[in-house]
Amino acid sequence: MTTCDAAGRERFATPRIAVIIPSYRVTRHILDVIARINGECQQIFVVDDACPDGSGHYVAEHCRDPRVRVLWNPQNLGVGGAVIAGYRAALEAGADILVKIDGDGQMPPELLSRFVAPIIEGKADYTKGNRFYDLAMVRSMPPIRLLGNAGLSFMSKASSGYWDLFDPTNGYTAIHARVAAHLPTERISNRYFFESDMLFRLNTLRAVVVDIPMAARYNDEVSNLKISRILGDFLRGHLRNFSKRLFYNYFLRDMSAASLQLLLGAALVFGGSVYGAWKWLSQAGAPATAGTVMLAALPIIIGLQLLLAFLMWDMQSVPRIPVAGRLPQDPDSIQPRTGTSA
Fold first, then answer.
1. Which of 13, 176, 218, 308 is deepest in the core (most CB within 10 A)?
2. CATH architecture entry for 2-249+321-341
3. What are the tens digits of pLDDT across the range 196-244?
4. Whole-model pTM above 0.85?
5. Does the keyword Transmembrane apply (predicted)?
6. CB 331 within 8 A of CB 185
7. Chain centroid to CA 165: how far?
8. Distance CA 154, CA 166 (A)
9. What is the structure's pLDDT at 143?
10. Interaxial angle between packed helices 227-247 and 143-160, expressed in degrees from 0 to 180 and rounded to the nearest 10
11. Where are the domains of the chain?
12. Three-state secondary structure call for residue 157
């Protein structure tokens, strides 16, 4: 059941909350994670993503929590495929808010109320964890992860358009069910780029995303993420999403002064650079005249100023008004992924 406040924002009176737990080699920790999910959650979907340890069967045999339902993917789809399978099941079950928690114990289930609160209050469409909010928390993070997350965060800001967010690969998330139902799930990355790709897709819906401060916890969990294996995929994914976002937001959906700044600025920088390089190569080391230098430098300077103006515009265009209340209830818009349930 939902109501609207004085500002017209949708608020939940008694939200139905579902937790999705991707299950892949987390047999040692998953029962403890489930046990720590409080009564605020009505449903728990454990998605066995073709786990070689049979963690889904382990939960089915040893967990007595009546809220738990186990789903099995017949083949390994990756974290994204597992989460989308859980989203579909939760939507079909009538959930209002979908929370994703990993099964390895790094994400405290006790924080669930913090993640759903902005959605319940109509202040956000999607919330995600941020392990960098409190600098004291960062000390517990391994240096290589700290450096990697800083680089990934900058790329994600540019590709998603959410310049005020950090820690984009954080998988502790909550989403309004109506927003989840309108995501183009058949296009979202299945693998480790899933969280970053989600932010890009949410921006295409103009959804409001809010960071939730949380502590970084690293105990004896074994990560399946190999930086050398996914670095190329992340670079290609961010470049693709950055290009698509600029086209969607500044040319396909709308044309504004920022669109002209982007086009003219890029043309001037490119033209000035090409002209300067051509003159430098053609003169074979001879000194360039002041006029030649100005003809190359001036377009570059003006172009950079226009691109900086565009960047400031883009940073101020982060969605601020939640979109969930304006979206139609259309659960059929989410596309199915391969998977079975029991």
1. 176
2. Alpha-Beta Complex (3.90)
3. 999 999 999 999 999 999 986 665 555 555 555 667 788 999 999 999 9
4. yes
5. yes
6. no
7. 10
8. 8
9. 75
10. 20
11. 2-249+321-341, 255-315
12. helix
